[in-house]
Design brief:
The chain is of the alpha+beta class. It has one domain: 2-Layer Sandwich (Alpha-Beta Plaits), CATH 3.30.70.330. 31% of the residues lie in helices and 36% in strands. It is built from 4 helices and 6 strands. It has helices spanning 4-7, 15-24, 37-48, 92-95; strands at residues 8-11, 26-31, 52-60, 64-67, 70-73, 77-84. The protein has a 4-stranded antiparallel beta sheet. It has a two-stranded antiparallel ribbon with strand order 4-5. The chain is globular and about 50 Å long.
Length: 96
């Protein structure tokens, strides 16, 4: 099994993720592409010492970008939405 710090790469800080954090107690993380929901749940519980209710994952495709006439794609990545139990919270910059 992987180390917990290899599963969670970094938190995703956007307006939408901050809104979900306040309203639904749901935190968004960039995770390793080959990690599954069980590994993500265990990593969040171990690193932040909280109880996880639900984990949703999605694969984010890289976007097309161009520089002059050269065209390419940004890297694809995996995103996890982690819903915590009632009363638990994470200080985002504390654990990572």
């Amino acid at each position: 099994m992987k180390d917990s710090r290899d599963v969670l790469i970094k938190p995703v800080i956007t307006e939408n993720s901050m809104l979900k954090m306040e309203e639904n107690n749901t935190y968004t993380f960039k995770v390793a592409k080959n990690s599954n929901k069980i590994q993500i749940r265990n990593a969040v519980e171990e690193i932040f010492d909280v109880k996880v209710d639900n984990v949703n994952t999605m694969n984010m495709r890289g976007k097309k970008r161009r520089l002059g006439r050269n065209e390419g794609r940004t890297a694809s990545w995996k995103k996890a939405l982690v819903k915590l139990a009632e009363g638990d919270s994470i200080e985002i910059f504390e654990g990572l």
